[in-house]
Amino acid sequence: MTAATSRFPAEWEPQSAVLLAWPTADTDWAARLAEVEDTYIALVAAITRFEPAIVCVSDADVEAYARARLSSARVDMDRVRFVEVPYDDTWLRDSGPISLRGADGFRLLDFRFTGWGGKFDASRDDLLVERLHDLGIFANSSRQPVDFALEGGAIETDGAGTLLTTWQCLHERHPDASRGELDRRLAGWLAQDRVLWLEHGALEGDDTDAHIDTLARFAAPDAIVYQACDDPADSHYPGLQAMAAELAALRTRDGTPYRLFALPWPAPIVDEGRRLAASYANFLIVNGAVLMPAYGDPADAAAATVLAQAFPVREIVQVPCRPLIWQNGSLHCVTMQLPEGLA
Predict the structure, then answer these.
(1) What is the DSSP string of 117-179?
(2) Are 81 and 55 in contact, with CB atoms under 8 Å apart?
(3) What's the rounded Cα separation, in Å, for the pair 59 and 63?
(4) Helices of type H across the chain
(5) Which residues have CB under 8 Å from 198's CB, separation 6+?
(6) For labeling, which of 19, 132, 172, 321 is most exposed (least CB within 10 Å)?
(7) How far apart are CA 88 and CA 91, in angstroms?
(8) Which residues are designated catalytic?
């Protein structure tokens, strides 16, 4: 399969499964493992209402434990598949495969995962796609290693050739590359013909250098959902207001403005003096539904209303994600959808 015959599917297209990894005491979740396990149980329960979940586990004991916890929560275990594979942590959005669909199967782009620019050890996570592919987890596919640092959370596609990303993240990973060079590389590898860049927008407590999936997401080829901030006293206000203006200036392929859906701003969540990155934009689209991160904030209900407007034919399911943002990510960050036919 060549780049010319492949396509990067949008997240709302039919899926085979969602890939994720179970948190353990050997991951960064160790200090608050019980809380995080509860979130994972709720997440797997939500996923399996709509499609299968493929859960990576580090060994047989972890599988037995996860199976028992999920079973006791009455999760549909017929829709849960475990795979034993080593991993450093559980951020599958960034260490998992980026899947391109072609007429003769899938091409799994295996970009370098560097722990978000060398911030954390990621040697096992960088091998995850290769190991899963060798285990036969993915059907009708080939793996293409790409010697270039790129995380799945850094890119959004509309499924029709338009990519949305942030300059801060890509420039941080590749400071010597020009905008034009990054345009060409991303478009070539990801089978895109337009790259839209956002210059503004970042969340305190986010160590990904402004991943797009915490900021703005396609809801349709002509619609974007984004994290807004309406509190002038909040430190995020100038950047997110500037990002909203950038989004308003973007145009669809036919030259019309995007339909924009502004997500509400939750109250600041501070942990031991550290502001946490609570973003409603970090939702996951699955077959027939949108799984939305909830933070125990009154804005949760308002965010669900906005997402229902952006995705009118999908059920909006809230998943409690406050424990996840302690480690600077949320629901979308710990999952990777697999397009229909890949698993």
Answers:
(1) HHTS--TTGGGHHHHHHHTT-SSSEEEEEEEEE--GGGEEE-SSSEEEEEHHHHHHH-TTS-H
(2) yes
(3) 6
(4) 33-48, 60-72, 92-95, 115-118, 128-134, 167-173, 179-190, 237-249, 299-310
(5) 164, 165, 166, 167, 212, 215, 216, 243, 246, 247
(6) 172
(7) 9
(8) 333
Provide mean pLDDT across the span 64-84: 98
| Burial class for 32, CB neighbours closer than 10 Å (0-12, 13-18, 19+) | middle
Q: Is the dihedral of CA 162, 168, 172, 175 positive or negative?
A: positive
DSSP-based three-state secondary structure for 262: strand
Return all residues near 338 (Cβ < 8 A) that are at least 6 apart.
15, 16, 17, 18, 19, 54, 97, 99, 138
- Alpha carbon 72 to chain centroid, angstroms: 28
- What mean pLDDT do residues 251-263 have? 98
Model-wide pTM > 0.90 = yes
- Residue 240: both structure tokens together: 């997110």
- How far apart are alpha carbons 253 and 171 in whole angstroms? 25
Compute the distance between CA of residue 343 and CA of residue 176 in angstroms, rounded to an integer: 38
* Spatial distance between the Cα atoms of 161 and 167, rounded to a whole number of angstroms: 19
Tokens representing residue 329 in the block: 């990510």
CATH class of segment(s) 3-339: alpha beta
**What value does the mean pLDDT take over residues 238-252?**
98
- Tokens representing 316 are 């909006």
Backbone angles phi, psi at 31, to 5 degrees: -65, -25
Judged against a pLDDT cut of 80, whether residue 341 lies above it is answered with yes
Give me 173's structure tokens.
């990973």
Neighbour-count burial for 61-74, b at 16+ CB within 10 Å, e otherwise: ebbeebbebbeeee
Output the pLDDT for position 4. 58
Q: Quick one: which H or E segment has residue 318?
A: strand 315-320
Which is nearest to 282 in space by CA: 244, 242, 326, 225?
225
Task: Return the CA Rg of the chain.
Answer: 19
Tens of pLDDT, residue by residue over 179-201, are 999 999 999 999 999 999 999 99
Encode pLDDT of 320-330 as tens digits.
999 999 999 99
